[in-house]
Amino acid sequence: MPKTIAATPRAVLVGVQLPSVSDVDHEADLAELGRLVHTLGFQVVATVTQKRAGLASGTVVGHGKLRELARLTGGTGEVPTSAPERKSKARDKWEEEDAEPEQEEEEEALPLDDDGEAVRATVVVVDHELSPSQARNLERATGAEVLDRTGVIVDIFHRHAKSREARMQVEIARLNNVAPRMRETAGGTERQQGAGAGESSLELDRRKIRDRVAELKEQLAIIHADQDQRRYARKDQLRVALVGYTNAGKSSLMRALTGSEVYVADRLFATLDTTVRALQPETRPRILVSDTVGFIKKLPHDLVASFKSTLDEALEASLLLYVVDAADPTCEAQLEVTMGVLREIGAEAVPSLLLLNKADRLDPKRRAELLERHPAAIVLSAHAPADVAALRQRIIDHFEASMVEAELVIPYAKQALVAQIYENARVVSENFDEEGRKLLIRALPAAVAKLTRLVTP
Ligand SMILES: Nc1nc2c(ncn2[C@@H]2O[C@H](COP(=O)(O)OP(=O)(O)OP(=O)(O)O)[C@@H](O)[C@H]2O)c(=O)[nH]1
Ligand SMILES: [Mg+2]
Q1: CA distances from 307 to 4, 169, 320, 436 (A)
Q2: Cβ atoms of 165 and 309 closer than 8 Å
């Protein structure tokens, strides 16, 4: 069947609702997958869902659904019988599971394009982790490219990551994703090789991947050591980090708080690199704000592990701002994901404020409900200057409480240090006597210690 080459790849989403998952959660999962796919630049033309007791091991969905899916992609709906994988245990199990009665849902009509022609999807995106053989079986039955959730997220990062560090981290995730797939697709359509190619060349390829991953990890270690050093240098500064689910409004708050031009967009994973800017109008000592990469449910493990700089920002901040899109019906689950990741890295001990953002989209009832559940939370909108000003004051108050007062005597021979003191502390009063200039300052204990060392003769 000739396929029209569409400018925008068309995708069909596939979800299997397991008995443990509620209708609401299932729908939210698929909606989120749709947004992820949208971030990749695909147009979602249909969604195929099925309720099943378990995932079919061969193709995730049962036989009937597979045919429905193939109708949308123009595939055969069958996994070719000649495929050697058909002899596998996994496939036998699939046959068995296919015998299970499926709860069929209403068939979706084939979407039509502007000319009234049926639109064929060229990409199938499954909301479950796919084994390499499941992906391949689905590819064969649908004739379309098949991606799972992890694949979509890794692709987003691959396309949009900008910093050298982020790009290297994505490459590691991709290589780790590719390596297991190679074994099962050897000799298959994806990796057609010349006659005689077999185990040994595959081994070679896999070794090359391992070597490349090792090389990337070494380079990353150097970048991280450098970052650690810079972070150490900022240790006595006042640091706050915006953390939270993707699309919660972290970058919008970053813009509002720091007057910086960080990228804001209504799409998932708009930010893929950490940014640090000073709170505006500037305070004495100044407060540094970090914008970080958003979290998401089922974040691929490689990517979590490799989000070192975001996670380190969080760990080393003296205040964490948990940003939540309060207008999202699944915001509680999103908050749980964020807290879960931060717990894992041991950041739960860092003092935090909960920000219920997008308050302009909350009705009074929902607002009251949320506040009852989170009495200490700050309800605000990143778009409301008064809210942002109040947040700024809360941040300042927080640091104010952790600052201590100290007197520094700067000998007349060391007056060059005065500028540095003004930079790192707030000078409450200033007096002169025969010993030198006497400054009463307020600053974090670490900053006081450092400045005291500097001025001590
Ligand atoms: N109505 C409303 N929209 C907001 C508010 N804050 C942010 N948004 C919108 O929400 C979308 C996402 O905002 P971002 O600031 O990019 O979100 P983020 O948390 O940085 O997202 P990622 O970088 O993807 O993790 C954008 O379209 C913003 O304009 C708010 O208070 N009210
Ligand atoms: Mg952002």
Answers
A1: 39, 8, 17, 48
A2: yes
Nearest to 136 by CA among 65, 193, 57, 73: 57
Higher pLDDT, 176 or 410: 410
Q: Which of 235, 271, 239 is CA-nearest to residue 255?
A: 271
Secondary structure letter of residue 119 according to DSSP? P
> What does the alpha-carbon distance between residue 313 and residue 309 come to, in Å, rounded to a whole number?
6
- Which residue in 137, 152, 132, 142 sits closest to 30, CA to CA? 152
Strands 145-148 and 404-410 come out as: unpaired
Higher-pLDDT residue of 109 and 28 is 28
Span from the CA of 171 to the centroid of ligand 1 (angstroms): 27
H-type alpha helices, 40-86:
63-73
Cα–Cα distances (Å) from 270 to 249, 327, 361, in that order, read 10, 19, 21
What CA–CA distances, in Å, run from 419 to 234, 428, 434, 454?
Answer: 17, 15, 20, 12
Report whether residue 321 contacts ligand 1, using a CB cutoff of 6 Å: no
Distance in angstroms (rounded) separating the CA atoms of residues 260 and 276: 10
User: For residues 308 and 166, is the Cβ–Cβ distance under 8 A?
Assistant: no
Q: Report the Cα–Cα distance between both ends of the chain, in Å, rounded.
A: 85
| Per-residue tokens: 263 | 């990228």
Of 326, 286, 228, the C-alpha closest to 424 is 286
Rounded distance, CA 148 to CA 146, Å?
Answer: 7
Contact criterion met (CB below 8 Å) for 267 and 247: yes
Q: Is 294 in the pocket of ligand 1 (CB under 6 A)?
A: yes
Ligand index nearest the alpha carbon of residue 266: 1
How far is Cα 310 from Cα 293, in angstroms, rounded to an integer? 6
Percent of the chain surpassing pLDDT 90: 44
- Token pair 């300042």: residue: 396
Pocket test for ligand 1, best of 258, 264, 379 (most atoms within 8 A of CB): 264
pLDDT 10s digits, 148-190:
988 898 888 888 888 888 888 888 888 887 766 665 444 444 4
Which residues line ion ligand 2, judged by CB < 5 Å? 250-251, 270-271
User: Which atom belonging to ligand 1 lies closest to the Cα atom of 264?
Assistant: 16
What gap in Å lies between CA 68 and CA 14, rounded to an integer?
11
